[in-house]
Amino acid sequence: MRFKDKVALITGGGSGIGAATARLMASEGAHVVVVDLVPEAAAAVARETGGMALAADVADRSAVESVVAKTVEAHGRLDVLVNNAGIGCFGRTPDLEPETWERVIAIDLNAVFYACRAAIPHMTGRSTAIVNTASISGMGGDYGFTAYNAAKAGVINYTRSLAVDHAREGIRVNCLCPGLIATPLTASAKTIPGLEAGWHDTIPMGRAGTPEEMAEVIAFLASDAASYVTGAAFVADGGQTAWTGQPNLYRYAAAAAEGAAA
User: Active site residue: 143, 148, 228, 252, which one?
Assistant: First the structure.
């Protein structure tokens, strides 16, 4: 019961990592506030967890401020903020519409600032935690993910800045950097021949992670078990960023040996 009687606000809580985090924290005693752009999704997870559902477009500053205000009004406190809402897009810079760039930056980066700005005044003076969902895409470049790469890199360094600024107020701030996770956002990989297998081939563990695995990392970072952890970017990617990207020499050597034997 790491979160007994604590109040946790989770954006993007209607599906994927956010929903898994809401379920886990609720199972360990938290009063969860599930925020999602899709009201039905937020409501479904809230019913499942006994929590509170709020619909909001996190790109809208006033909507984010309202979500935080309603949380504090309903529960009298805010102990954990999980900034998880996010979107991606595909396109190289010359092909990317400015409106698309701005939407990705608004949801993936600006919304984190809006939520932290509204929440921090309610979190000072006791042990509280903020966990931002970044990405390994914020640690390096990807083909055609310009806006997403830029936004997630911003989340990582903004996390560090927040941690430094608010450590002595009792607020710890960390971010999770997932690799490929099996969520609705990545499900389209299954529809493109060879993409999912090729993606798995870049991951030493050979598979995508699950939302539940990411929720465990978020819960750790938000819990008192991580009481001396702040300003950290925690990577959970099945070993993908540990690999240099050079060819798997064992595989080629085995294939050559088979060919010689034949």
Answer: 148
Q: What is the pTM of this model?
A: 0.94
Q: Examine the residue annotation and report whether 143 is marked as an active-site residue of this protein.
A: no
Q: d(Cα 221, Cα 155) in Å, to the nearest integer?
A: 16
For 193-238, the pLDDT digits (tens) are 888 888 899 999 999 999 999 999 999 999 999 999 999 999 999 9
* Burial class for 68, CB neighbours closer than 10 Å (0-12, 13-18, 19+): buried
